[in-house]
Amino acid sequence: MTLVLPDALLGYADRGPEWGDWLDRLPGLVRGLLGEWELAPEGPPMHGHGSLVLPVRVAANAGEAPELVLKVAFPDVDTEQEHLALHHWHGRAAVRMLRADPRRNAMLLERLHATDLAERWDLEVCEIIGGLYRQIHVPAPPRLRSLGWYVERWVDPMRRLPRDAPIPHRLVEQTLSLAGDLLADAAEPVLLHGDLHDGNVLMSADGEWRVIDPQPKAGDPHWEPAPLLWNRWEELAAGPGGVREGVRRRFHAAIDAAGLDEERARDWTIVRMVIDAHWSIEDADRLGRALDPEERDWITRCVAIAKAVQE
């Protein structure tokens, strides 16, 4: 077969040479998997923020076989343990995985409906996802990397951040202090999704909401709510009380539905937002350029959320 990659996915080559190399290899990877797993394509490829998703069926007796998707993700620390999480959930409030090849970062998954939570009221979304936390936060499998492993790698470079960086210095100092305290007082780790928001929940054939695209970690469930706060940003700005009140409404809707501790969820949200803001600075430094307007807007958003949850 001739695989035509979506233009938007091809645009990810701008992220660096490792992305360009993966995109060059991707058609061959997909052809190899289709042949080895005896799959027949059933439509044009789709993509996420770092993966190709191809609708397929088992080639033998394809007309009666279950509807599936072949997912091949860019190999990085966020995606390389996704198969461990999906295997551990085994379809419990999550997309069901039928097969995986960790070496090629590939999985064969059940095909869910395109219906997600994007059209739902944002506070309803927070309540639905808060309920999903209760189902997916099971004891973590032993091979999964810990949240602490990630956080320590992310916060250490902040100690060298100059005072004139676009993140307020007091927030940087607060993050360093909070991260140390939170990791020192760690509870029994659960399996975290890591990136759960309205676009990462799809409807199954039996009408149930299922989570997709985890960036799994073993750690504190209070790490989870931040993606609910930074998505659908324009709605926050246009809503009653603006961004500050909108962030606080979403935050409380999610933690109430999930039964999370407000103080601990607040502290982890501050840490997470400053980490995310710092990534933009690191990306620009790595590529030897100044921050672009989109990156500056993202840093501003992260700082606004970190302030809103504690005011």
Q: Which regions contain 5 or more consecutive residues with pLDDT less than 50? A: none
**Strand count, sense and closure of the main sheet?**
6 strands, antiparallel
Task: Note the total helix count.
Answer: 11
The quaternary organization reads as single chain
Fold-level CATH name of the largest domain: Aminoglycoside 3'-phosphotransferase, Chain: A, domain 2
Radius of gyration: 20 Å
Distance between the termini: 56 Å
Mean pLDDT: 93
- The CATH fourth-level homologous superfamily of the largest domain: Aminoglycoside phosphotransferase (APH), C-terminal lobe
What is the percent of helical residues? 40-55%
Rough outline? globular
Reading the helices and strands in chain order gives: HHEEEEHEEHHHEEEEHHHHH
Proportion of β residues? 5-15%
CATH secondary-structure class of the largest domain: Alpha Beta
Number of domains: 2
Give the helix/strand class. alpha+beta
State the CATH architecture of the largest domain: Alpha-Beta Complex
Number of separate strands:
10
Give a verbal description of the structure:
The protein is globular and about 60 Å long. Helix content is 45%, strand content 13%. Strand 2 and strand 3 (51-58) form a beta hairpin. It is built from 11 helices and 10 strands. The chain has helices at 7-10, 17-36, 82-89, 122-136, 147-155, 169-184, 226-230, 233-238, 242-258, 262-286, 293-308, and strands at 39-41, 46-47, 51-58, 68-73, 97-101, 106-110, 190-192, 201-203, 209-211, 217-219. With 311 residues, the chain is α+β, with helices and mostly antiparallel strands. The protein starts with 6 loop residues before the first helix and ends with a helix.
